[in-house]
C-alpha cells in the first residue's frame, strides 16, 4: 500500500512538471512595441512647436533657454510633452506645419498653434490671445498636407522611374527633398495626438456665468469628436487624446485672488469653479470617446487623463523636487498687472522686465500659463507608460487593441 502511494505521488509530480514544460513552450511572448513611422499633433500652446512664431510673432528670449539655448517656438524654457513623446518613440521633434524654413515632415507634422480652440471664437482673437487656427482649421491643414504630400511623392517616384530608363537624371537635391516628405503609406500607421481644450474653457470663464459655461461644454465636445471622425474618414486610425488640465491651478489665476470667500479655492489653493468646468469637459470628452470606440471598431482611441497627472504634480510638488507650485519663473503677475515673460512692463510705477528665475528646473510654471521643461518631463514620464490612460496602455503599445 505504501509503495502504491509513493508511485501515485511520483506520477502526479511528473505529470505536473510535464504540463508546466508544455505550457512554458507555448507561452506567448509580449507584443513588441509599435513602430510608429510618424506623429501628427493637433492642439494649442501646450504642444505648439513653432506655429505662432512662424505665422505671427516670434517667441522672445528667455523662452527655450534651458534646452535649446534660444527661443525654439515653444512656450516653455525647453521641451514640451509632445517633444518627450517623440523622444520616447524614437522619432525627431515635430516640425510645425506653418514653418516653411528648414522643416522635415518625414516623421510627421505639428498642426498645434498657441491660442487655438476647438470651437471658433466669436471675439477678437488677437486681443484675447487666441489663434485663428481652431481645431477644424488644423484638420483642414492636415488634409492639405496629406493631399500635397501625395502629389509630390508621386511626382518624385515618376522621376525615379525616369532615371531607371535613362530619360531623366535624378539629382541629389531632389533625393534630399524626397527624404523630407511624409510617405503616403505612413499616414494610416501614424500616431495622432490631441492636446486642446484649455482655451475653450478659459474663454468660457472670461465671458460666461458658471451655468452657461456648463451648458456650452456639449457643443465643444461635439466639435472635438467631429474632427476626430473627420480624420478617421481620411485614414487616421490610432488616436492618443489628452484631456484638459486643471486651469484653476494656473498661477495667472491664483495670483489674482485676494481675500477669497470660503469655497472659492479648493484645499490645494486652486480656483475651484474653474477646475470644476475642466472636470466637466473631461467627463463628457471621455464619454464621447468611449462611444466612438463602439462606432469605429477599426480605430484605437486612447483617452489620457492629463488633468490628474498635472493635478498630482501640483498637489505633491515639494515631494517631487519642486518649489511652490504657484510660483512663476518668467514674468511678473499680480493684482492689477501682468508683465509677460520676455516683455517689459510697469509694476507700481517702475519698469520691470519679465526675465527668467534662477533655476527653472525647480518650478512647475514657466510663465504663469505654461509648464517648465522639468514639469513637462515629469508629466510625460507619468503618461507615456499608460498610468493615466483609458484603456491602460503605454504609448509605445498604442497601436495594439487593449
From TrEMBL:
Classification via InterPro entries: GDSL, SGNH_hydro_sf, SGNH_plant_lipase-like
Pfam families: Lipase_GDSL (PF00657)
TM regions (residue ranges): none
Alphabetic keyword roster: Glycoprotein, Hydrolase, Signal
Signal peptide location: 1-25
Annotated family: Belongs to the 'GDSL' lipolytic enzyme family.
Protein name: GDSL esterase/lipase
